[in-house]
Request: fold
Amino acid sequence: MNAVVAPESSLARVRSQVLDAAGIADHDLERALGALMRGTVDNADLYFQVSRQESWTLEDGIVKEGAHSIEQGVGVRAMSGEKTGFAYSDELVVPALLQASAAASAIVRQGQQGRVQAWQPRSGHRLYAPIDPLPTLTDDDKVALLQRIDSEVRALDPRVKQVVASLAAAHEVILVCASDGAMAADVRPLVRFNISVIVEQGDKREQGYAGGGGRFGYEYFTPEQVLEYGREAVRQAVVNLDAVPAPSGEMVVVLGPGWPGVLLHEAIGHGLEGDFNRKGTSAFTGRVGERVASDLCTVVDDGTLPNRRGSLNVDDEGTPTRNTVLIENGILRGYLQDKMNARLMGTESTGNGRRQSFAHTPMPRMTNTYMLAGPHHPDEIIASVKKGVYARNFGGGQVDITSGKFVFSATEAYRIENGKLGAPIRDATLVGDGPTVLNRVSMVGNDLALDTGIGVCGKEGQSVPVGVGQPTLRIDGLTIGGTGGDE
Amino acid sequence: MSTRTALSLENGVVSLQEKVNDALRLARQLGASQAEANASFGTGFSVNVRLREVETLRHQRDQGLGVTVWLGHRKGSASTSDLRPEAIEESVRKACALARYGAEDPASGLADADKLAKSIPELSLYHPWAIDPAAAIELATTCEAAALDFDPRVTNSEGASVSTSESLRVYGNSHGFLGSYPESDHSISCSVVAAQDGAMETDYEYAVARDAADLPGPAEVGAEAGRRTVARLGGTKLETCNAPVLFPARVARGLIGHLLSAISGGALYRKSSFLVDTLGKPVFASRVTIDEKPHLLKALASAPFDDEGVATTERRLVDAGVLGGYLLGSYYARKLGMQSTGNSGGAHNLVVHSTGETFADLLRTMDRGLVIADLMGSGVNPVTGDYSRGASGFWVENGQIQYPVTEITIAGNLKDMFQGILGIGSDVDRRGAVLTGSILLEQMTIGGS
Reply:
């Protein structure tokens, strides 16, 4: 492999950037971890983070504000059986590190200082360039990009009355060292462009939204790419001007490719996270090896896709990410694990231990979750439906892990009548049951697509960037919640 | 074991005020015509007990400083969690640099000087809780035990938590305003799992207060979590129908929350609201009256001044159904040709007047319909008011709860829903910025099988 920079030297650079700058030496790390590894503590780790973010927002045709933020600190964790002690400090100095270590280790009874394994640098993937994306475009060019898209979008359709566009980037540098010897660093660029428009026609007003991004520099947002987002936002808003009330009740639903994969994230993904299954609170608990989907369905969580928003070279515990098969031809294959839940369930981490920041504790979280392509042409799938709904785009979703019930909200959908797309329908929520919904998948498209890089997943108050994807799917019965009645 | 950190709130006030003043002084030196700075410091901890064993102990300690500068009417902002002088200086310099790229926007700037709070009323928001983790673990254990022991069908648990936090916020601007006040928040919560016939359900209960003395007993919180969870067992789907819907107080708060988003300055100015141009018009049934009371003692959303230092004042927001005001900060107030209402950063205690009925009275009035237990998803279109969300709850016949229902949707339009309010209960839920009793709606579409 022709890596431009060997992982060790990337680790060395991050160490110098994060630790040397703060005057934290190797013996300080050993002292902090030693203080954590008391009594019955199984594992302990230190997580250093230095990140910078910026955002630029345009409204009324002018860039109203640029904002910049710096966040840095260290999170300190001690784990003993099912117990976790956690403390953090936003001061990167030795006394604060030791104080946090003492507080975190108070979860277990005091005992002799434990042993810390010799550190072995873990080489992660090289899925994205270790760059700082903030200076990849000059500030003048950021402003110009936003102003250009504003005038272009207004020129697309005279019904466009408002345009809000934003450009944002984050440069996150993390370093984790653990008592099990894991030591890893990662430099994580992330950029994002969003646009929302309001269109007016008579007394009707509708909103449309589009955006995208990933782990690279601003150069991704070429004029053509940005205009494509603008066109998409306008198209969605204009479609909804003519929307009629959605039906209500159980119907055949065809989901479009890409972002509608939020279905998989909610219906399947969360329920397969190791913490819920270790505790036995998931509707999927104890069901590995059972059929949970039709044999057309294979679903994976893949943190190793280059440049994707949900990808990571190593997770936040220093474990390289993987491509984990969740469902294979309809059979439940496995869970998503972090170190603690893997240890308690007698398995190994799948590289899904993620945290929002140093001030939060890691949990098993998804990366990029998607369904593999199937045999059917998307046109064939729509043509197969006598009466139903085609949902092309979605807002967010939510799931109750324990009952398995999930919802997701369609923002662009159409009636299907006799195999043909009919009138667009108003915003409607779809509701279903995670462990059974994929059993009703009767056709899977050959058009697998991933989302454009917009996903944010929230769990127990922590947000992390994720990706989703799927091909076109036909589901023979989901409950849709409109006001248009059940004809 | 001590959990207090060196920088206490008492000695932190002076230190944070100095940092705010330093930032403002530097901004002026760098040529800013106006500037504001906001510094905060918080500390606390939380414990979680699961299946009668302590599971997590988390210590929290947060600090930050944000600065906004204007060069004329061009604005730039920066923030940092590093409060060393060199980091603050870097942030101020960054904000000034960003402002040079901003566009001239006449509406942009500090709040008008005459709107700033002249005095800071004592609102009783700061009541430190003298509790250590060991005592908090004991409370959480008692709480969870009450849930686990509530019913044999309670078989598992997500645990019970006790948390305490104290914070201090200092806001200053170049009009010479410098205000600060300390706050505390304490909570007890519990979430358990119940099982029956191979199906599991979960629910939770929580209590939150400025003063730990105002929290209910931990066993009371736990038992309620158990009761709520067991009540959901055996849920069935409904046939699709139209019916009245009763939002219990806890869920009704969210219904009024949709009003808050719709009458906020930004949404109105961008016309991304279903309530554009409704000032002085009836947006609710005439039986609905809502006051904003920013100075309620000990209330969760009380504040002596808003995020721009503007004095908060009590007012009637909705009078007999008619919208009497918007929620405005200075910027969008100027854009709309209006005045700030002291709502930069949000609403402060919206008190929805009860129409006098108890929850049981509302059930009897409803006679036949749906009581919501929980809503899921974000299916509300702010521009059109279209409302469609996943729901679980209870079916009511003859004014009595009959059986739990699940995997259904409720749909309508917020404009019609607000006009269709038939009653507001006396069972006020005070655990948030909206204080309301249960709300009965005339009719919604229920999607089921």
